[in-house]
UniProtKB/TrEMBL annotation:
SMART domains assigned: P-II (SM00938)
Protein name listed in UniProt: Nitrogen regulatory protein P-II
Organism: Chelativorans salis
Key words, A-Z: Nucleotide-binding, Phosphoprotein, Transcription, Transcription regulation
Family: Belongs to the P(II) protein family.
Stored SUPFAM superfamilies: GlnB-like
């Protein structure tokens, strides 16, 4: 089992959700986050004063999948989230040792 974690631009969330749904992935977790990478933030003008915004709003999408689906999930997220501009985000894949569905007690792949 793998945990696929993607940091993407907020306006790409619906496209990523649709792409994962087409793969048959039923559940995902979404968290609003802030951060920066090579983009390094930007400057904004508010009430006539210019200030630097170091941390940009992003969305973190996490989905647990079986080993055979992980590469397809990464490809789907990459295709749906790509704009070709700096700041498109990153995808990380982690191993999952164990998963348990609390309601039924199912474990591992059955719990997904």
């Amino acid at each position: 089992m793998k945990l696929v974690m993607a940091i993407i631009k907020p306006f790409k969330l619906e496209a990523v959700r649709e792409a994962l749904t087409e793969l048959g992935i039923q559940g995902l977790t979404v968290t609003e986050v802030k951060g920066y990478g090579r983009q390094k933030g930007h400057t904004e003008i508010y009430r006539g004063a210019e200030y630097a915004v170091s941390f940009l709003p992003k969305v973190k999408v996490e989905v647990a999948v079986d080993d055979g689906t992980a590469d397809r999930a990464v490809d789907a997220i990459t295709t749906a989230a790509k704009t070709g501009q700096i700041g498109d985000g990153k995808i990380f894949v982690h191993n999952i040792e164990k998963a348990v569905r609390i309601r039924t007690g199912e474990t591992d792949a059955d719990a997904l």
